[in-house]
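For the sake of transparency, this paper describes our internal protein records without simplification. Because each token names a local backbone shape, the row as a whole describes the fold. One such record is reproduced below, unchanged from the form in which we store it:
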Amino acid sequence: AVLWRAAVLGAAGPRGGAVGGGRYLRDELDVGSFAAGASLAVIGAAGAVASPLLGRVLDSVGPVRASVMAMSSCGVLIALVGLVGSPVVLTAVMVVAMVGVAFGVVILQHLAALAVPENRGGGTSSVLSFRFAGHAIGPLALVPVFTRSPGLTFVIVAVLAAATMVALVAAARTSSPDA
């Protein structure tokens, strides 16, 4: 159950930070659709490109330290997004933050596979379904907040990153022999 909690929290909060970043580009920094889309593509690609390296980092430091590294770095950076006044700076901050989010996904999938060693596919699939739920819930909760206070939205996402970190650490301590 703690892995499911980490999946929902991580998808609704830190991963949902990209939705807020896109809206911030458009609504607060007056960036056009093409430039905002290009920025979001770069932000998303960074996590995908970094994932193999992040897996190696996970193997070398273990899931507890990796969870703290991933979620604390992305939480701090996402909290600052509402203060950024430049599209280039926002993209750079979000790239680094989303690499932290991607690291969280690598950790989550690693722990899911360890949690059910006799059915790794089922464990991973179960966690993915909760991530899907988090992806659906996050925008529903965060978009109305963004409309009233963009900066507060990113603070909430940072708090959700901290909650995700707590859940990942708890999951690592219960399901990982190398925690």
User: Anything to note?
Assistant: The radius of gyration is 16 Å. The CA atoms of residues 78 and 110 lie 24 Å apart. The chain has a mean pLDDT of 93. The chain is about 85% helix and 0% strand.
